[in-house]
C-alpha cells in the first residue's frame, strides 16, 4: 500500500473497538454501524425541520431580512447532504474501488457544506453584522465556498492519493475515510482552534474598538464549542500520529461524530431557534441595503409598530409582534428588521379573523397612532 500515517507507529488493530465500529456491518449487510449512528440524529433533525416547516415559512415570509433564509437554506443543505451520504454509503460496497471512491467523495462533500456554513457564520458575525444585505451575503457565501472548496479538494486529494495506514482494513483490503490523513487533520484542526480562541479574546483586546463585535452570549458559546471541538480533534489526531494510537482513534471518532451529527442542529439552535419559536423572538440580524443596492418595495421600514390586539388562542401567538421595534440582535445592538408589508396582512390568524379582530401593521391612522408615528 502507498499510503502513510506520518509516523512509525503500527496501525491500530482491527479488533480494537474504536476501529471496529467504523467498518462493522450489521448482519453482514452493507449497513455499517458508523453510518447508522450518524444517520439517526440527522434523520431526527430533518423530522424536526419538517414538523416546523409551516411556521418557519410564515416567519421567513414576514421579514425582509435575507439572512434568516440564508441560514435556513444552509441548514437544510447540510442535513440533506448528510442523509444522502449515509444512504449511499449503506448501498455501495466500500470494498470495491468504485464504492470506496464514492464513499470518500461524499464525505468530502459533506465537509465542504459544513465548513462553508462554519466560516459564513463567523464572517457574518465579525465583519458583516451591520450590513447583512443581499449583495454582502452573496459575497460572503462566494468567499467561504471558495475557501471551503480549496480545503476539501486538498483533503480529498490526500485521501485518495495517500490513504492513511491507520484506516486500512486488512481483512477486507480497503481504506476507510481518514480525513485526508492525520497530519492534515491535526494541522487543520489546530489552525481552526487557534482562530476560534482568538475570536473569543477579541472583546478583551484593543482591536475591539475597530470591530463591530457580536453582543449576544450565544455567539461566543457557539465559538467556544467549536474551539474546544477543534482542539480535541487536534489532540486525537496528534495521538493517532505520534502517541497512543488506539486512544487517539477513539478521540477522533467521538469528535467526528459530534461534528457530522450535531453541528447543523447547533447552528439552528444558536441562530434560528429563537426566530422560529412560537413565542415572540428577538431578531438576531438586521437588514440594511448597500449603497449600490436599490430598495425594493419589501425592504422599506414601516413606522413604529403598535402591538397586536390581545389574542388568547394558541394559533395567534405566532402572529404576534412586539409593541416596540425589534432592537435585540445577535450581531449588533439597535438593529431593526422591518416587517414585509406584502405579507403582513396575510399573517392574520383564522382565530383573530373569526373574532373580528384586525392586525395593526403600524400604518399611521388619525388620532393617537398618527401622533405616535410623528413622535418616533
Automatic annotation (TrEMBL):
UniProt superkingdom? Eukaryota
Topology relative to the membrane: Multi-pass membrane protein
Q: Name one GO cellular component term.
A: plasma membrane
Query: What subcellular locations does the record give?
Result: Membrane
The protein's matches in Pfam families, at most eight in alphabetical order, are given as: Tmemb_40 (PF10160)
Q: Which family does it belong to?
A: Belongs to the UPF0359 family.
Query: Protein name, please?
Result: Transmembrane protein adipocyte-associated 1 homolog
Source species of the chain: Euphydryas editha (Edith's checkerspot)
Amino acid at each position: 500500500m502507498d499510503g502513510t500515517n506520518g509516523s512509525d507507529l503500527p496501525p491500530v488493530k482491527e479488533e480494537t473497538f474504536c476501529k471496529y465500529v467504523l467498518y462493522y456491518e450489521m448482519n453482514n449487510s452493507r449497513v455499517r454501524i458508523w453510518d447508522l449512528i450518524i444517520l439517526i440524529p440527522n434523520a431526527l433533525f430533518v423530522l424536526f425541520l419538517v414538523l416546523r416547516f409551516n411556521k418557519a415559512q410564515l416567519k421567513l415570509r414576514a421579514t425582509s431580512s435575507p439572512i434568516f433564509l440564508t441560514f435556513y437554506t444552509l441548514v437544510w443543505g447540510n442535513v440533506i447532504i448528510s442523509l444522502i451520504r449515509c444512504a449511499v454509503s449503506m448501498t455501495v460496497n466500500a470494498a470495491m474501488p468504485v464504492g470506496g471512491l464514492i464513499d470518500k467523495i461524499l464525505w468530502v462533500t459533506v465537509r465542504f457544506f459544513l465548513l462553508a456554513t462554519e466560516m459564513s457564520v463567523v464572517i457574518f458575525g465579525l465583519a458583516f453584522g451591520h450590513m447583512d444585505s443581499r449583495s454582502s451575503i452573496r459575497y460572503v457565501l462566494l468567499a467561504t465556498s471558495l475557501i471551503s472548496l480549496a480545503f476539501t479538494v486538498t483533503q480529498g486529494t490526500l485521501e485518495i492519493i495517500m490513504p492513511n495506514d491507520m484506516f486500512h482494513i486488512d481483512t477486507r483490503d480497503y481504506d476507510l475515510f481518514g480525513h485526508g490523513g492525520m497530519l492534515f487533520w491535526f494541522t487543520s484542526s489546530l489552525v481552526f482552534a487557534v482562530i476560534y480562541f482568538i475570536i473569543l479574546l477579541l472583546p478583551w483586546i484593543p482591536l475591539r474598538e475597530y470591530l463591530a463585535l457580536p453582543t449576544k452570549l450565544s455567539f461566543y458559546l457557539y465559538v467556544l464549542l467549536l474551539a474546544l471541538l477543534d482542539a480535541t480533534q487536534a489532540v486525537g489526531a496528534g495521538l493517532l500520529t505520534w502517541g497512543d494510537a488506539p486512544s487517539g482513534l477513539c478521540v477522533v471518532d467521538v469528535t467526528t461524530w459530534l461534528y457530522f451529527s450535531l453541528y447543523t442542529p447547533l447552528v439552528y439552535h444558536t441562530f434560528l431557534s429563537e426566530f422560529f419559536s412560537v413565542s415572540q423572538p428577538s431578531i438576531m440580524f438586521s437588514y440594511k441595503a448597500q449603497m449600490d443596492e436599490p430598495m425594493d418595495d419589501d425592504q422599506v421600514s414601516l413606522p413604529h409598530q403598535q402591538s397586536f390586539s390581545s389574542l388568547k388562542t394558541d394559533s395567534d401567538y405566532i402572529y404576534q409582534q412586539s409593541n416596540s421595534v425589534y432592537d435585540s440582535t445577535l450581531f449588533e445592538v439597535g438593529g431593526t428588521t422591518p416587517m414585509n408589508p406584502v405579507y403582513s396582512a396575510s399573517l392574520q390568524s383564522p382565530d383573530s379573523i373569526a373574532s373580528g379582530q384586525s392586525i395593526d401593521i403600524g400604518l399611521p391612522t388619525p388620532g393617537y397612532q398618527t401622533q405616535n408615528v410623528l413622535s418616533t
